[in-house]
Amino acid sequence: SAMAQHAGPRLPLIVKNLIPTLSSVFESQRITTTAFFAELLSSNVVNDLILLETVMDNVTARQKDTCMLVRMLALRGLGNIASGSPEKVRKHGAKLLASMVNGMDDKDDPHNLVALEAMSSLSKLLDHVEERDIQSMLLHIAIRIRPFFDSEQSDLRRSSIVLFGNLTKFSEGNCEVFFEQILNGLVTLLLHLQDPKPEVVRACKFALRMCGPSMGCEGLCDMFLNHLREDRSLHYGEFMNNVCKHLMQSYPEMLNRLILTNLFYFKSNWADIRAAAPMFIGFLVLHVDEDHCQQVDLDHLISGE
């Protein structure tokens, strides 16, 4: 960042001399050069010096590197274009989005560090991409990130939930298809309002506020907007009672599906979420009308599995 600020005229030659080391047999050299290029992409100087395409193409090529850290840094660099050259993201949108999706599908990523970087970078890029570029990938991304909502790693929970919230901006064209994804994640997002990590709770509040307008229930949308503000504390029991009332008024046919998803959380590793799940079910059953009560498998519910 210091070189981007103070060594502008010398950067083209530095970049030219560093490019061969991206293919070095020495892992440390590939890591260092990729890290340098990734940081360079967060500055508009690469645009001013007509280096953006050169640096971006070379960083993109590192996605197949055998070193996981190099692949992670490559994605970080591509995400940094959103802050360094936001006006260029639109032009390269399809290519950048494909890189992020490939990063989330990285097969040699045991700790999901590449996937985490891909999700964080994708969230940064979404404000600048063309809607048509994201539409074709929307469903794949939503399905791919869903398992991370319950990850043991709080960073993965937070990043995947924030990304899901950001994706809802593009759901209008695929309203029915994406609505299904919202329903699939709804119980998880509501339960993780009791997450032990405050940053995950904030992410859930954000995602639910973003999902509200797509849910076709004005009362629920208003509740999410009014009660899930970042600066407002939440009376969880009262909030869930009212949420379940709206859910059962608008989607009574969803009762069994919502109950089954909650049953999964009876064995959650987090005590507050284990406690929230039966309360959630209790409020659902309380507010459902008699006609839809037949959906409930009492034996299944009583056994809690």
UniProtKB/TrEMBL annotation:
Organism: Sula dactylatra (Masked booby)
Protein name: MROH1 protein
Positions of the Maestro/Maestro-like HEAT-repeats domain: 58-303
Domain of life: Eukaryota
Pfam families: HEAT_MROH2B_C
InterPro entries reported for this sequence: ARM-like (IPR011989), ARM-type_fold (IPR016024), HEAT_Maestro (IPR055406), Maestro_heat-like_prot (IPR045206)
Cellular component aspect of the GO annotation: cytoplasm
